[in-house]
From TrEMBL:
Transmembrane intervals: none
Protein name (database record): Polyamine ABC transporter ATP-binding protein
Keyword ATP-binding: yes
Keyword annotations of the record: ATP-binding, Nucleotide-binding, Transport
MF terms in GO: ATP binding; ATP hydrolysis activity
Organism of origin: Geothermobacter hydrogeniphilus
KW Ribonucleoprotein (keyword) present: no
ABC transporter domain location: 1-230
Amino acid sequence: MAYGDRVIQQDLTFTVRRGEIFVIMGGSGCGKSTLLRHLIGLKKPRSGTICYNGLDFWQQSPSRKRHIMRNWGILYQGGALWSSMTLAENIAVPLKEYTDLSAGQIRDVIDLKLALVGLAGFQNYYPSELSGGMRKRAGLARAMALDPEILFCDEPTSGLDPVSARRLDQLILELRDSLGATVVVVSHDLASIYTIAGNGLFLDGETGTMLATGTPQQMLDAGNLKVGEFLTRGRDIEPLS
Ligand SMILES: Nc1ncnc2c1ncn2[C@@H]1O[C@H](COP(=O)(O)OP(=O)(O)OP(=O)(O)O)[C@@H](O)[C@H]1O
């Protein structure tokens, strides 16, 4: 992965398994968001391949790419809702763009998705009328509008108070369990990582590559000092040496 001549990360090899919550972790500026941009098809890797269900994404035709992307939901930092639209209108956008549902059916899906994230009855609220946690949950409802196979979340708990953050973690776990979605999360929130992560990887900004992969415990057990410091900071766990 590179911007111009500057290589951000290289030699990344990992697999996200269906139905798991996979967390991309690492310190500030190491390239987590850049990796996410590659995974959601916004940026082409300088070299190497990114495969979905065995298909090399960048080798696909534009229509096939669009078809693959139709099965993704994305929760951006802050929720990224359109401020001039109500929650119902926000969630209706992908439904109108990608489906032939009638207005009544779209209303039903909106009601369902808002109920799923604990926002039943908030259809006519504008994002500015909601708390940060509610905005994230509304963003999640929009990301889930098309019943995606893969849900990508960029720092979902950033900017939230601890109670809202843990509620969002629980919601992500529930969505994975009830809808069977695969979830890929960028996070450096330790409480969140230990709550939701099945597997993940640790990116290092200094060496520009991944230092560990696996469950958080496996990453700790692998004994890399930087990974150990990251995964035990502020916790009552002895850093590995
Ligand atoms: N559009 C861009 N053009 C050039 N360089 C960029 C661009 N976006 C990010 N970078 C650089 O790439 C590096 C990785 O950035 P990135 O945002 O992916 O890191 P991050 O791990 O997500 O950081 P943070 O945790 O602080 O959000 C940084 O040095 C950043 O300055």
